[in-house]
Design a protein that fits this description.
globular, mainly alpha
């Protein structure tokens, strides 16, 4: 499904991490795909409030939780720089879809990284 939000369509998720060889591109690609699917779900389901948005972001965060094992298998991990970048992209998504008041920590409350 093509993203209709122009701001989101132009965004390359996790971009700063791609320039760091510590983070394998093939795993970053999976993380970027999680964020892309989150955007697709937001556009499809059109959450009407923060509770509905958080349900979607928590599901995407759970996908990142599972991705941690792939980072580790590739000799990497979701460490400080990655955590910050992932959290920033979640907040960007929330803001781009009209939820600038979303709490950045609540967006990823289900994380275990």
């Amino acid at each position: 499904m093509p993203i209709t939000n122009q701001q989101v369509a132009e965004r390359r998720f996790l971009q700063p991490l791609y320039s760091d060889p510590y983070f394998p591109d093939h795993v970053l690609d999976k993380g970027a795909a999680i964020l892309q699917r989150l955007c697709e779900r937001i556009e499809t389901e059109k959450p009407s409030d923060l509770t509905a948005l958080y349900a979607l972001t928590w599901a995407a965060t759970e996908e990142f939780n599972l991705l941690e094992a792939e980072f580790e298998a590739a000799g990497s991990e979701i460490e400080t720089a990655a955590r910050e970048e992932i959290a920033e992209d979640f907040w960007f998504v929330a803001s781009a879809y009209g939820f600038a008041e979303a709490d950045a920590e609540e967006l990823i409350a289900t994380r275990d990284w």
